[in-house]
What does this fold into?
Amino acid sequence: MLKNYIKLTFKVMLRKKYYTALTLVGISLTLMVITVFASFLDQIVSANPPEIHRERTLILDKVSVYKGDKKTDAAPSISFLQKNIRALQSTETISYFTTREFISFLNGKTAGHILKFTDENFWKITDFEFLEGKPFNIIEVRKGARVAVISEKTKAYFFKDGAALGKTFPIQGIAYQVIGVVKPATPFSRIYSDVYVPYTTDVNTQRTEKALEGTYNALLLAKTNDLKKVRAELRGILKKANLVSGADSVKVHAFTALEQFAKSSSFNDDEPEYGKTAIVISIVLILFMLIPAISLVNINVTRIGERAEEIGIRKSFGATSGTLVGQLVTENIIITLIGGLIGLGLSIYASQLLVQFINTFDPLFKMPTDSFIISWRVFGFCLFSCLLLGL
It folds into this structure.
């Protein structure tokens, strides 16, 4: 029966080529937009390599200082983090990092690079794939060794196709030796960088870091998925901390990537509002799918009217209304699946065009062309969207 339905679907599609083409264009463009959007969200919140522990990795990126009725928000300092959160019992590993930028001049060309100062624990929380070499260790961090782990893109820029290990390159006029090359993280991730170096080589620390406020963040790898324990322990520690600068109280903000995305405001330390975020995303998706859905409805109405004789004959031979409806639903799903596959293919090129468009606004710090990755989660979501649209 299903085989006959499939054959009949293609005959109906070929009978009205113009309307079929319009339907497929509408469906494919809609699914293309949905796929790019889903890929973007997937890169932000999902546990993709190298962030395989994303569901239990909190990012402590803000400290709020209360003095009377005044509240000041800022990134914490490295001294504040090392003094107050290094001994958390609810965490497995803690890493400190900050992100800077530097410009290079090579072969008459200027390029911008993302630079991340971090420590040896950064490589324990993440799971980067090392193409060459190894990460820096605790001894190199303590000594302030000028060593660097670079991304695949950075290697190609500085060293072309040649070997990078053991060679040096300049960062703000200072030579760093390459000890590792990794596959890059997604540009939408907080751990993304072109170059990783020990935070003890950060010459700006003394000028920019204060007792509380600074430029550093922390990655907290919780022992379990119960992240409320980590936040509760943080609150308890800060209540007992010796506050400086006349502060009445201090609050830190530590959330996972998903929690940060779900929060209604980055300046709100309440629990994330997942329901509200899901409603907003659902409304956006429904609006995107509404136009091709209306198009399908109109085509179905026309198609049913033209097939009145066929339907009458089938009913006279005993076909039930349920059987006829099942046939039409099958036809719709097949059409939307075809449009979805076309849209999936278009999304690959559309995402590359989107990256090129974004790069025109910042030609120095260019995103990689493969920033949008179609993972199995994105593929499954698009398949579900096709079925939903067909139904």
Summary: DSSP finds 13 helices and eleven strands in the chain. The longest strand covers residues 91-106.
